[in-house]
């Protein structure tokens, strides 16, 4: 057994540094998680400091927020992870030797995303009933509206991220986690959008998720379904999903022309 060599260790560290330097998404990810956590929990703390009575106004409001946020997160991962699996196995090019069309792949990804989201979120929602004596299903029909809007937004994000991976390669795969959590502070999951700085409020209201969580609080606190927020989320989601599908199909055709479908993988 050869002795430990500092030169070999240095060479391997240098190798990983070169890999890191060659992928800007990996560099971004290093500072990303601490920054997002700091911003999110800073805003939560700031809101609760001046509104300590807010939680008492609606039992289980934080649990409802967590479960609905998970719909968006699972819907997005439900698109990106199956797509990544095809790329890891270098199977993407093989699939399109068959008569499969790109838009059929898109529909399949959205379908499996729905299944994965239902399995994941339904289990958590049912467990919340015996553990915390709270049922998110008490919201009734508004819950279906919130679920649908977050599901569609997750689909749009998943398609956009998959398109970026097609364009940039597997070095950008961390965007599946980075992308959706970047929107968490702006979505007003645990606090109203008005908690944000004034200049950020229009940015937040350009997200369907912000309207969904504002609508959720209106139902839980005031017992009112805000149709204004619902229609805004519906309109924005129409734009988002159309853009997501278009970008994915464009990136796919571009990768096919470059011959990249058979070259991507581990």
From TrEMBL:
The keyword Transcription regulation does not apply. It is found in: Cell inner membrane; Membrane. It is a multi-pass membrane protein. The chain crosses the membrane at residues 30-48, 54-84, 105-132, 144-168, 175-193, 230-252. Residues 25-251 form the ABC transmembrane type-2 domain. GO terms for molecular function: ABC-type transporter activity. The keyword Magnesium does not apply. InterPro entries: ABC-2_transporter, ABC2_TM, ABC2_TM_bact-type, ABC_2_transport. GO terms for cellular component: ATP-binding cassette (ABC) transporter complex. Keywords: Cell membrane, Membrane, Transmembrane, Transmembrane helix, Transport. Belongs to the ABC-2 integral membrane protein family. This is Transport permease protein.
